[in-house]
Amino acid sequence: MIFGITGTPGTGKKSVAPMVAEMLKVPCLGLNDLARSLGLVRGKSGDVDVGKLRSTLRRSLPKDAVVYGHLLPYALDPRAVGKVVVLRCEPETLKERLRARGYEPRKIVEDVEAELIGVVSSDAFDAFGKEKTREVDTSRTRPGEAAARVAQAIVSSPAPSPRIDWTLDYDTGEKLRFLLSVAG
Question: pLDDT value at position 18?
């Protein structure tokens, strides 16, 4: 069975996915690495030809694997997936993680805004449905703890929990301006 892990850049996919794959005793496949190896990354922008990536996955996806990447909702056929876990991270924490990675200020604001409004999460729920999709908050967890939570979300079938909504924490213009400022 195919299990997916997705989320906004900086939420922990690259750290967590290999651990989850090891726990489940299946191979691990990173969509960004696959796209690069296939020459599907366009120029300096780093955009991926998602159509070709989707086509490649349709033809060559292993029977069992953990597949991860922020492009998962756009590149993976929903019929091929057993469960998908969206890694979420509190926006201020995410901002600090991206800064520490040396992201450009414009990219930090773009990714923090996407996490704030749940772009990847919404797209995952739209693509895979609420029965297959779960969210795990990685804001204050170490990768091993987050991996254990993800593995649990994959193997158990509890009723879907309430979706994470960061917008409730940023309910004033002042909080939003600080979060989305390049300087803040």
Answer: 98
What's the domain count of the chain?
A: 1
Mind listing the pLDDT tens digit for each residue in 139-154? 999 999 999 999 999 9
pLDDT at residue 174, rounded to an integer: 92
153 in a structural domain: yes
Per-residue pLDDT of 78-112, as tens digits, reads 999 999 999 999 999 999 999 999 999 999 999 99
Tokens coding 183: 């300087």
Task: Please report, for residues 6, 20, 28, 98, 157, the alpha-carbon distance to residue 108 in angstroms, rounded to integers and kept in the order given.
Answer: 18, 27, 27, 6, 34
CA distance linking residue 66 with residue 81, whole number of Å:
10
Q: How far is CA 39 from CA 9, 53, 60, 74, in A?
A: 21, 10, 16, 18
Sign of CA dihedral 72, 76, 77, 83: negative
**Cα distance between residue 108 and residue 181, in whole Å:** 10
User: b or e along 51-80 (b: 16 or more beta carbons within 10 Å of the residue's beta carbon)?
Assistant: eebeebbeeebeeebbbbbbbbbbbbeeee
Structural domain contains residue 147 = yes
